Amino acid sequence: MTDRMEASRPVGFQRHDHGDCVSSAIESAEARCREDGLRFTPVRRRALEILLEEHQAMGAYDVLKRLQEEGLGSQPPAAYRALDFLVSHGFAHRVERLNAFVACTHPGADHVPAFLICTKCERVAETVSIPARNLLDAAAEHTGFTIDTVLVEAEGLCAACQERRSA
Q: Number of helices (H) and strands (E), helices first, in the chain?
């Protein structure tokens, strides 16, 4: 892959500066771990880098395979523990529909992610679901319900798959 192509890889359905994206996310994770006294171990760091490098939803076994190839964990618990850490601290998210993980595109921001999932190519784009969360909070308050977790996943076709379908 050329440097020009590498610099403009898709995140979800958009192109971006890939090198800056990866380094910014890692720097953000390192800073947050220092501030909060969290251990950002080599396996956790590499798991995040793998998710960032791919910018697509990846199963735990896909991450484990990469870790094993690099000598950073030979058993499934290594990948699962690293992914659990990343998710619990907001560095990555679990996409339930795909039983997979993606790096957070808004690291450090207090947000409720919403995922747009292409049913054709299975690419995932993260966006922020603040309006949906506000509606749910209001409905929950009205009924005396306390929300622990909100998961928003929408399925459809990305622009590229729509173009291919209509061509």
A: 7, 7
Measured over the CA atoms of residue 114, residue 153, residue 12 and residue 85, the dihedral's sign is positive
Measured distance CA(124)–CA(56) in Å, rounded: 6
pLDDT per residue over 32-66, tens digit each?
A: 999 999 999 999 999 999 999 877 899 999 999 99
Q: In terms of Cα–Cα distance, which of 88, 11, 16, 80 is closest to 43?
A: 80
Give the predicted TM-score (pTM) of the model: 0.80
What are the pLDDT digits (tens) for 81-115? 999 999 999 999 999 999 999 998 877 777 778 88
| Sequence ranges of the domains in the chain | 3-166
Which value, in Å, is the radius of gyration of the alpha carbons in the chain?
17
Rounded Cα distance between 40 and 158, Å, is 34
The fold of 3-166 is Arc Repressor Mutant, subunit A (1.10.10)
Q: Do residues 83 and 63 touch, judged by C-beta distance below 8 A?
A: yes
Instruction: Check residue 44 and give its pLDDT.
Output: 95
b/e for 149-162, b at 16 or more Cβ within 10 A? Answer: eeeeeeeeebeebe
